[in-house]
Design goal:
about 240 residues, four-stranded mixed β-sheet, Glutathione S-transferase Yfyf (Class Pi), Chain A, domain 2, alpha+beta, Glutaredoxin, 2 domains
Length: about 240
Amino acid sequence: MAYELYYWPGIQGRGEFVRLALEDAGADYEDIARKPESEGGGAAAIMDFLERTDIIRPSFAAPFLKDGNILIGQTANILLYLGPRLGLAPADEVKRLWVHQIQLTIADFVGEAHDTHHPISGELYYEEQKTEARRRSGNFRKERIPKYFAWFEHILARNPEGPGVLAGNTVTYADLSLFQLVEGLNYAFPRRMSQVLAGAPRVAFLHHAVAQRPGLRAYLESPRRIPFNEQGIFRHYPELDE
């Protein structure tokens, strides 16, 4: 039975981290909301699911994944579940938890990236909080991006088992997620990222290597890969990258 992924149509968002794992592994899955509404797709499919009252363990928000009778929410939690099933997580429990820890750190970073353009509230338009966004993004560019990338660079250098990957000796879902993080930040803050990646050669190498993986390369070059836009987590506002 195919996995069913539920995430908003038209944006990459947090659902993209799950898509990358599914695509890299060549997994059989349906991106439910990207189907026509006449076939049970669209944003209505997500809202209908979230509003159901018969689900014992409901998700707070998308993304969520359905695998038969199993329903899993939260990006990092979905990847923790999928990792061993897709061959994208170590067999050893301690190492699996380490990969999960890296993923949770990436989730923290993604949240901070989102808050650069919506520092006050997600309910307000960007134009209603531009002054605060400039201040927030200035700190993000100068302090937070270098701090996170120094950590990624550090654990890549310290991994005793496999050069070029974050954990173990093969690519895990955390490597795919770091690739997506770099992609998003390159889109949102191209000027700053050119400087940061120059000082993080191991992260830059991993980003390039992941993009060449056959399953991912085919996906990235296909129409299934939604382009970055100013509706998702990573948004490019030139005034925030000065």
